[in-house]
Please model this.
Amino acid sequence: MPKFYLTTPLYYVNAAPHLGHAYSTIVADTIRRFKKMQGYDAFLLTGTDEHGQKVERSAKAAGMSPQQFADKVSSSFREQWQSLGLDFDAFIRTTDEKHAAAVRKIFEEVRKAGYIYKGSYTGQYCTFDELYASEAKPGDPCPECGRPTETVTEENYFFKLSSFQDQLLAYYEEHADFIRPESRRNEVIAFVRSGLRDLSISRTTLKWGISLPHLPAQEGEPPASDNHVFYVWFDALTGYLSGIGYGQPGEAGQMFSRLWPVDLHIVGKEILRFHAVYWPAFLIAAGLPIPRMIYAHGWLLFEEDKMSKSRGNIVQPEPVREVLGTDALKYFLLREIPFGQDGNFSFDALVGRYNSDLANDFGNLVSRVLTMIGRYFNAEIPYPAVMAQRSAQDRQVLELAEKVIGRFGDCLDRYDFSGGLEAVWELISAVNKYLVETEPWALAEQDTGEARSKLATVLYTSAEAVRIATQLLAPVMPEASAKIWGQLGQTSDLSSLSMDSIREHPLETGEKIGKVEPVFPRMEKEAAVKKLMQLQEQASGKGLPAKTAEPMGAEPSAVEKLSIDDFMKLELRVGEVRVAERVKGASKLLRLEVDIGTEVRQIVAGIAEAYAPEALIGRKVVIVANLQPRKLRGIESNGMVVAASVGKEDRPVLVTFVEDVPNGARLH
Model:
């Protein structure tokens, strides 16, 4: 069989798993199951990233050693995947000794190739992103997440990332599907085109990590200290290699040769740069093939706010599993959220989708069809009329089923889970309509051979459509599909059946069906939502907060009321944008020159993702004019542009005016 190697992110163990982590793994589990149906030798790697400053600090705050803390959190990830029925083939921990050996091996390969040199770094570091903010100055926030940075001074080994700029750009151009979706690809290309700097890949001010091998000084270099540990991203990314046997002898090494390169990395959009820029550069330098595709999905929002530990709005999957079942959670996430985009999660929407789609549409269809077969045909699959004698309605259902099989496969090949499920529900809706129009319960009351034949044909056609829908839904809802499969009287292992079998093996007439039981019992919505909230409160130790107005990524803070005297200290002025241009190396920043009447101010604003520079020229804006200057990406910013935060992604919307207001006018 052809192989298909895919990975989830290696989840960072600074905190326990939540629904956002589960979403990535649910997607990966679905792809793995679907690829097996297509005949692939599908192999899924997941695991935990356990080194770095955040873990060290989280462990200290918990009163534990870093290893004890990592052991506890890593176990909770593994236990959660198992409780949700998410299958994986390998689970790598970056504290495993085999992983440390792999990190040192790839480092040696890169060093032998001439891409490593020793130097020193003095500058800003973002602990939250484990990111070197090389262009930031002391006091500047992280250019990616806006959190405070720390000044670090240390001896480092550097990777010559700058040597790979042209090669990466050429690869992106030649392989349009390497980074998906398209919007994320464009972001990465813009970042690389802005210029790549060499990357520090070791740290000396951190102890919790994999130590570098002792390295004799190269010609012209001062002796190196022996207290270097690997930068967390050089360490963590190598987990995709170490988890399948890179550098190991025997069968483990053979597994690596069989599986590499990876066919699909599934990552969150916030770590795409590390995977799409750093990772392929490391691999090229080590002489290894690079991944075939990196797919970055969006954030999972709760009530339209990003889930985050700092916000306190983390949702755990366990309460959903307890109330509605794991398959309902999987179905909701894959149907509701177009893969690659941000998606909103709420208990109200979850229960609503469960009742409408699973209980009313599919669950009710299964119960109606099988109950009538049990009642009217002694629980045996009936014999339909020959095809030439079937009605146009009968044939239309089977023709639609054939089209849906093809559409479902095409959608899942593109990772369009929502589209694939919509196709299956088109079939389910058509069969429900077919039953209403043909009225098999009325046919059963007619004592004629023609009515009996038509009844058998209607119920066989409906049961065959249920079989097809059940097989298609198996990668998404394996537990529920297996129950329905048994109720259809099928004894084969549903998980082992191929996509080809959907067309090749229709229901056998005369087979006994199983016991008919509700698979998706309808829920009373208000009571179910209340139960979910109660269980969530118990799981998190506190209730979910009301929606806040803080920007995504900001740390929560108490709301402090200002006196009118303090408010009047703010100098809000009307300005007109004269110049607008992108800041090199920063995807979110624009450099503006704003005319405020008495002078033209230079301001750096984080609005590049919402506004094209050319669209701002001549636009009236409001600025805070009496802020102390600060530097962002080495550019001095003298003020702040005022904007609202709108929508799921906290999109900035500039404050402006309907009427003509002169430059420099003060707001009161």
User: Anything to note?
Assistant: DSSP finds 22 helices and 24 strands in the chain. Residues 347-376 form the longest helix (30 residues). Residues 542-560 have pLDDT under 50 and may be disordered. The two ends are 72 Å apart (CA to CA).
